[in-house]
Structure formats: C-alpha cells, structure tokens
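Input (Tripartite motif-containing protein 71):
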Amino acid sequence: SDYLIAIADRSNNRIQVFKFDVIRQTVTFLHMFGDGPGTRHGQFDRPAGIVFNPVLEHIIVTDKDNHRVQVFDLSGSYLFKFGERGTKSGQFNYPWDIDVCGITHNILVSDTRNRRVQIFDKLGRYITHFNQPLDSPRGVAYFGPSQVLVSDFNKHRLVLIVRSDDEQVTSSTSLVATSGNGTDYLTSNNNNNNNDNLLLSNIAQDKAITRSQPLRQLAQAETVQQTFYESKFIGFGEGSSWGEFLRPQGVTTNGSSVFCSDSRNNRVACWNRDTQSFSYISKDIVDLDRPAGLAAIDNYIVIVDFGNNRVHICQYLMSMDSYTWRRVVTFGTEGTETGNFCRPWGVAITRYSDLVALSPPAWSDYLIAIADRSNNRIQVFKFDVIRQTVTFLHMFGDGPGTR
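Output:
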C-alpha cells in the first residue's frame, strides 16, 4: 500500500521520485533524473507536468520549453518522445500539464499557447484536440473516461468538458455554470469509430460567469444519445471569495472530488461533485505560496508549493458535505542538491503495489515523482506511510536541451 510520488522540479530541470510509506507516514527520496537545460534524449528545459502510468510502468513528462513530451521507465531510463514546436495537430507551443486515462491509457496534454488540449494514444500518436472555450489551459485531469477538467489560467475558472458517445451514456448530477446553449457539436477527424477521434468544432458562445447568472442543474440519470462535447464552468470566475479562482493551475481528481491549485489565492480549492460544495486547503492547514501541481490518491493529496520550493502531503477525511484535513509531512527546500527544488511544478503519485516491476519493502508505501523545473530534472521519492517520512530514491534528466 506504499505510494510513489513524482515531482517536476521545473527550474532544476529534473524529476524527483519519492516513496510515501502510509503506515509510518514518512516520505523517502528514491531517485531523480534529468539535468539541463538541454535538448538531448532525457534532458529537459523547464519540465512542468508529470504523471505515472502504473500499468505500463511509465513516467511521462511535459518538457515544456522543448515543446515535447518525454516518456521514461520507472528507473528514469529514456523510452521515447513525441511532439515538437508548432501549431499543427500533434505539435506543441509550451505544453504544460499532463494526465493519463486509467482505462484507455490515452495521454491528455495542455498545449498552453496554442490554446487547446490534445489527446494522444499510449505511444504518443495524435488522436484529437479541443480548443474552445479555452484561453490559457494549464492544469488537466481526466474525470472518468469521458470527462476532462481544465484550469483556464487567464480566465480564472475550471472548465469541465463532457463527451457523450453514440451509445447511451448516463450522466451524473452536476451543478455547474454553462456556456451559451450548452451544446458543442463535433466532427470526426477520420472514418473509424474511436469516440476519442472527435474534434470540437461549433462551440457555444463563451460568456462570463457571475454570481447573478443561473447555474444549470443536469437532470439525474439524464440519457444522451447524440455524440458531442459540452463545455461547462465550475465556480464563479475571478476573485478570492468562495467558489472563485485567481490564476488556477494544477488539477487532480479522486472519486467525486476535484482539487485545483488556486495559485494567486495561495490555496487549494476542493469541489465535490455530489454535494456541489467548495472547501479549501489554506494557511490554517499549510502555508502555501502559489501552489502548482497536484496529485491525489486514496485519501492523500500531494501539493507542490511552487513559491516555497517544497512539497506537502496532506490527508483528508470526508463527511457528508465537507473535508477534514491534516498535514502529514513537508519536504524540500530551494537548491540544486539531492532533495532540493528550484521552481518545481508537476507531481505524480502511485502505489508500490500497482507496480509489478518493483518489489518494495512495504506494500503500503507510495512512489512520488517531482518535476524539478529549473533544475531540469526529475526526482523520485518514497513516502513511508507508517513512519510518515519521505526518502530520496533517484533522479534523472539534464538540460536544457532537445535531444
């Protein structure tokens, strides 16, 4: 039951990987990879997003300033890359965050300056993209196989993109603000029947969301028979009050819970789909400075504290309509040595028990990988749940570079 946590240590241009031991409640550094900045295979120039695919035993990293995605095995050995700078399908202009669908293994990437989100298969082959009503997509997360969450950094909001298939799909109740008439039709980019191969084409007019505008309540067990994407907004736009955002960044999900780094409000927003309620992780739990990447698993959330060059692991319990939080452990400080960070952004976590290739000392531990952005490397740590400690394992990557 241990977990792996990977953190994109952005300004160090590396990824750091840790183990979280659930029973001992400790985090242990395992290893890190990457250096730079550089352009060679395995080198980074400001890595940002990071995610595990525990089934394929991959660590996948958005190499932001090299305009590509790199894929590694769990030890940090380079496997392959995809993407290059450009505006065509499959190309990137500063890709930022990344997620993997646990069912299809498709890869979701926020292509920030192209103002779109792209979807690729597990080998990095382009499938589709959608671009409206997005302005500056930053964090991305799958919310099940047919829903995608995107934080729109400049528009100060969360966007929920819902796909309904030709087959009947039952949607859960959702209280969100909608754009226009709420229906966004699609055209296929090829002739096969893959439901992911659909392009968002006719988006309803984007409208500002304010408290005075009504929220749309989807009917319980609503049955949809057309194939379309529908864009909806979670929250009430720019601000610092309840339900508002100021420069939202990282996004992650866990069951019916959605977590988003509300970076300029120095808090993490928690939205529950079932209860339609917001709550927050803020200075009464942990002191944050522009929180960035997030990763959630079981009842833990890992928060990259970008401005403080450190990482927090928090644990939560849920009641009917609220979360009860406690900080478990904090690790990292500014620097270039092992376990140090320089402007980290992305983080990924997985259970040791989900990784066939590893034989951990305790199945309750977690593996954590961190994109150490300005150090151009990835650092890997172990979180020991019993001891509540974090231990460095290894690191990989260098740069900046594009090789």
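Residues 166-227 have pLDDT under 50 and may be disordered.
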